[in-house]
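ok so for the tutorial part 2 we go from a plain amino acid sequence to predicted structure tokens. step 1 is just haveing the sequence, like this:
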Amino acid sequence: MLYKEYPVNALLWPYVETYWVGDGFASEGEWYKVLPDGCVDVVFSVDRAENACRVGIVGTMTTFLRVNARGSTRMFGIRFRPAGITAFTRVPVGEFTDKHVELALVETLFGDDFYEILYDFYEMPPGFHEALSEQWLARGIFQRLDDFLVSRLDRLYQPDRQVARAVELICRARGGLSMSAVASDVCLCQRHFERKFRRAIGITPKMFARVARFTRAARCLQGRPRGDLLSVAVECGYYDHAHLIKEFKMLSGDVPGAPRG
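step 2 — the prediction. this is what the tokens look like for a chain of 261 residues:
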């Protein structure tokens, strides 16, 4: 599979992390893993063999998701930052946790004209990795997504500032801050804090901290020798390398350093 990320308009940075494209799946079908990252994705999928265009939403995940795609399938998506999608919709994010739901089955998030972008994607030339297709994506699909989302900035719902602050604290702490300390910092009792956080993010603060720590560790492990697990574990807030291995098995289905697929 070929996967590539594309930048978003700077005005969208508080809400959207990246646009992405997946293409070049094996002709006989290929399983690939999507790892938890604390984000919510809106996924556009085109299957030319079935002449089908679909839009789905992948909620915040507490473990890996295995997805099967055929060679005739092409995907692109919008990855919203933690709680970022709540600026565009009042639909509770928790409804999508660990699920991939067709957007047509959900209350309209963005309006009917949002779906027109999918049909433009259906017409793009095969092989997004080719130079012409790269330009077409950057100046076509993603420019339209930028324009669409930016046009809605003047009517956003106000994201919960306490939850946003909590996310910032958890990501910065590298696993070294208790959730009671985070709740105290944002001036909420523990129960109210957990309820607000789950509504905006889709998972509990404790689970989000595990995912954030796992994501950081996965990045730290890139390019490092397998025998360096202990230093990565300490750097990322795990008790020891055994704790790191256990978390990787639970969240990714593999031990650290195993090839993805």
